[in-house]
Amino acid sequence: MAVTAQRITASTTPVALNTAAGSGERLIIKNTSANAADLGGPTVAAGAGFDLAAGATVGPIDLDPGDVVYAIRSAAADATLSVLRV
Question: Of 39, 65, 66, 79, which one's alpha carbon is 20 to 30 angstroms from that of 25?
Answer without folding.
Answer: 79
